[in-house]
Design a protein that fits this description.
Residues 127-429 form the NAD(P)-binding domain. Belongs to the NAD(P)-dependent epimerase/dehydratase family. UDP-glucuronic acid decarboxylase subfamily. It is found in: Golgi apparatus, Golgi stack membrane. Its EC number is 4.1.1.35. Pathway: Nucleotide-sugar biosynthesis; UDP-alpha-D-xylose biosynthesis; UDP-alpha-D-xylose from UDP-alpha-D-glucuronate: step 1/1. The protein is of the alpha/beta class. The protein has a domain at 123-307 and 345-371 and 402-425: 3-Layer(aba) Sandwich (Rossmann fold), CATH 3.40.50. It is built from 16 helices and 15 strands. It has helices at 2-10, 12-19, 36-45, 49-72, 75-83, 94-100, 133-144, 199-204, 206-213, 223-237, 273-293, 317-326, 346-358, 375-386, 410-415, 424-446, and strands spanning 103-105, 111-113, 124-128, 148-153, 172-176, 189-192, 240-246, 297-302, 305-306, 331-334, 340-342, 344-345, 365-367, 372-374, 392-395. The chain has a seven-stranded parallel beta sheet, sandwiched between helices. α11 links the parallel β7 (240-246) and β8. The structure holds nicotinamide-adenine-dinucleotide. Nicotinamide-adenine-dinucleotide binds next to α7, β4, α10 and β7.
Length: 448
């Protein structure tokens, strides 16, 4: 007792705690009234709450049902979605906003805001010859619309400068590679442009060019091996393949303007035949792979194209005249200058190539500007643009130079909904300013 008394007196608060009834720290849970269920149902039905919940569930489930379907789509499904406009503005890529200030180029070049939600699957595309004149513009368009692009080029006529603005872009890759050697890449589409295209270059190395296009499979170093390699790659990975053929397949034409149904008038043993016959063989191979191996193919027959990034001294008539005009040299006209050509601006061609690749038709399709000019008329336009006092120098014509060239583009108009938009007088100044800069830089480098 004594001890107990002592403890009590030492810790009186603890004694109080022991004696007082304990109050719980939280108020006790009130038992639900059995009538609360109907009240909750009442709550749900009031102010259309149930309707809002159902609409929410519907939106959510639609999103989750569609999302995996879209990511499983193959390239052809995606292409048809693009045609139907489903993809417009939905190529949601963070990288794109990094490169285009939050905006992106739609597949057809229009600028739109990046939309969240379901988007077209990003395509992985190979462009052979992508460091060249046409190829580099095509690469710009494909990167601009949000795809991944791999360029394969051996820099025979192409230049890194044409692509330098894309270095560092995570959707762009450049591989130094000769298409005569096989390469394996997982891709959805192949634009096959690699080929020494200008007269100077294909005459400079005629043996290599002819080898390029003959279907002699046992010859190793060939450009036809390039076409075969790319067709083989397309077959292996199920990619769509586009061949850039040429109006040269019509040779010195007996039909004017040239329709795709015309079989051409080509000298098979002339100086130019390494190119003309090479491209004809490439077309044959392309169709053989389509018929025999089920490869999805497209064939473009390109007519004379001009624009910025053309080689300065490649022997093509527009670049010749423009470079000579800027350097204050006489413009060289071969023959009497009455032979005709049609000149298409490069962005029109690139639009046509993409429309062909995305469309459902194999071709061949003529892609060119039907505006027809004699060489003398072209020289006059160049004079107007650069220097009205420029002079013309006549030289004997080259062998097998076609007398006339003008595309009939009704097939492309009807089936690809494509036609060129830029006239020679609009396009030429754009090329001239590019040439002026490059010639100035060259002269500065030479210390002139
Ligand atoms: N520009 C035109 O007026 C025109 C007309 C008709 C057809 N084409 C065709 O369009 C395509 C592109 O022509 P372009 O004017 O841009 O020519 P280009 O010479 O500027 O480009 C061709 C590119 O292919 C590359 N190349 C060549 N051989 C190669 C090989 N074996 N392996 C890898 N790369 C190789 C070159 O280095 C170059 O970058 C060519 O196939 C050409 O035949 C062009």
């Amino acid at each position: 007792m004594k001890l107990l008394h002592k403890q009590t007196s030492v810790n009186p608060r603890r004694d109080e705690e022991l004696l007082l009834p304990r109050t719980p720290p939280y108020p006790p849970k009130t038992l639900k009234h059995p009538r609360s269920l109907p009240r909750s149902i009442n709550y749900l039905f009031k102010e259309q709450r149930l309707l809002f919940i159902l609409v929410g569930i519907l939106i959510g489930s639609t999103f989750f049902v569609l999302q995996p379907t879209v990511s499983r789509l193959g390239p052809s499904d995606v292409r048809s979605m693009i045609r139907e406009g489903i993809s417009a503005g939905t190529i949601a890529h963070n990288q794109e906003s990094r490169y285009s200030g939050g905006k992106l180029l739609s597949p057809y070049g229009k600028v739109g805001r990046v939309a969240a939600g379901i988007g077209r699957r990003r395509l992985r595309i190979v462009v052979t010859g992508g460091a060249g004149f046409v190829g580099s513009h095509l690469v710009d368009k494909l990167i601009g619309r949000g795809d991944e692009v791999i360029v394969i080029d051996n820099f025979f006529t192409g230049r890194k400068e044409n692509l330098v603005h894309l270095f560092g872009n995570p959707r762009f890759e450049l591989i130094r590679h000769d298409v005569v050697d096989p390469i394996l890449l997982e891709v959805d589409q192949i634009y096959h442009l690699a080929c020494p295209a200008s007269p100077v270059h294909y005459k400079y190395n005629p043996v290599k060019t002819i080898i390029s296009f003959l279907h002699l499979l046992f010859i190793t170093i060939t450009n036809v091996m390039g076409t075969l390699n790319m067709l083989g790659l397309a077959k292996r990975v199920g990619a769509r393949f586009l061949l850039t053929s040429t109006s040269e397949v019509y040779g010195d034409p007996l039909e004017h303007p040239q329709k795709e149904t015309y079989w051409g008038h080509v000298n098979p043993i002339g100086e130019r035949s390494c190119y003309d016959e090479g491209k004809r063989t490439a077309e044959t191979l392309t169709m053989d792979y389509h018929r025999g191996a089920g490869v999805e193919v497209r064939i473009a027959r390109i007519f004379n194209t001009y624009g910025p990034r053309m080689c300065l001294d490649d022997g093509r008539v527009v670049s010749n005249f423009v470079a000579q005009g800027i350097r204050k040299q006489p413009m060289t006209v071969y023959g009497d200058g009455k032979q005709t050509r049609s000149f298409q601006y490069v962005s029109d061609l690139v639009d046509g190539l993409v429309a062909l690749m995305e469309g459902e038709h194999i071709g061949p399709f003529n892609l060119g500007n039907p505006g027809e000019f004699t060489m003398l008329e072209l020289a006059e336009v160049v004079k107007e643009t650069i220097d009205p006092s420029a002079t013309i120098e006549f030289r004997p014509n080259t062998a097998d130079d076609p007398h006339k060239r003008k595309p009939d583009i009704s097939k492309a108009k009807e089936l690809l909904n494509w036609e060129p938009k830029i006239s020679l007088r609009e396009g030429l100044p754009l090329m001239v300013s590019d040439f002026q800069n490059r010639i100035l830089n060259e002269d500065a480098a030479k210390g002139l």
